[in-house]
Amino acid sequence: MEFEPSYCRYCGHELEEKHSEGRERPYCPGCDRIIWQNADPVAATVLRRGEEILFVKRGIEPGKGEWSLPAGFLEHSEEPTHAAVRELEEETGLKLKTEDIEIFESMALERFPGQKLVAFIFSADMEKAEGEISAGDDAEEARFWTLEELEASDEKLRKHFVSAMREVLKNKT
Ligand SMILES: [Zn+2]
């Protein structure tokens, strides 16, 4: 998968590099402009049930078969809290109110080479959630895991989410 642009999105000219504001940036000689690159925002939720956290198994590429927090990209103009509860419901069937989640961490990460993301990670308690767990949308399975189960498992999982989970459980006690 290719995330670094090679051609100008405005005029189609092949991009070059130009030094600007402290770093090399993609530059289009066709329309004489710097092509600014920004990370894509993602919202994720760490949903606790006692010592367990809800994870979903991705049913589609990229990352098919990987266990991840319920998460997804923000729509244009969407509040991060709304994106987090929307993705949770789409992927697991569970409903939370935006006031029942709180920001836990934000981080910049690169999931695939060149794919820059900024993640807003929220935490919430299962007691606040309504509905039954049923995997949906691009998730093929949704279930709670203990940290020990996850660490002992040979399933594919996203390391940065496991470290987030460890922190949430630690802060809870
Ligand atoms: Zn151009």
Outline the structure in words.
- Strands 4, 5, 6, 7, 8, 9 and 10 form a 7-stranded mixed beta sheet that branches. Strands 1-2-3 form a 3-stranded antiparallel beta sheet, with no helix packed on it.
- 19% of the residues lie in helices and 36% in strands.
- It has helices at 80-92, 147-152, 159-172; strands at 16-20, 23-28, 33-34, 40-49, 52-58, 67-68, 71-73, 102-110, 116-125, 139-146.
- The protein folds into 2 domains: 1-37, Ubiquitin Ligase Nedd4, Chain: W (Single Sheet), CATH 2.20.70; 40-172, Alpha-Beta Complex (Nucleoside Triphosphate Pyrophosphohydrolase), CATH 3.90.79.
- The chain is α+β, with helices and mostly antiparallel strands.
- Bound molecules: zinc ion.
- Zinc ion (ZN) binds at residues 8, 10-11, 13, 28, 30-31.
Provide the descriptors you would attach to this structure in a database record.
173 residues, alpha+beta, Ubiquitin Ligase Nedd4, Chain: W, Nucleoside Triphosphate Pyrophosphohydrolase, seven-stranded mixed beta sheet, three-stranded antiparallel beta sheet, elongated, binds zinc ion
- CATH architecture descriptor name of the largest domain: Alpha-Beta Complex
Number of strands: 10
- Assign the CATH topology of the largest domain: Nucleoside Triphosphate Pyrophosphohydrolase
Helix content: 10-25%
Write the H/E string, N to C.
Answer: EEEEEEEHEEEHH
Please summarize the sheet with the most strands. Answer: 7 strands, mixed
Shape: elongated
**CATH superfamily of the largest domain, called what?**
Nucleoside Triphosphate Pyrophosphohydrolase
Which regions are unreliable across 5 or more consecutive residues at pLDDT < 50? Answer: none
Supply the number of helical segments.
3
Q: N-to-C terminal Cα separation, in Å?
A: 41 Å
- Report the C-alpha radius of gyration, rounded: 19 Å
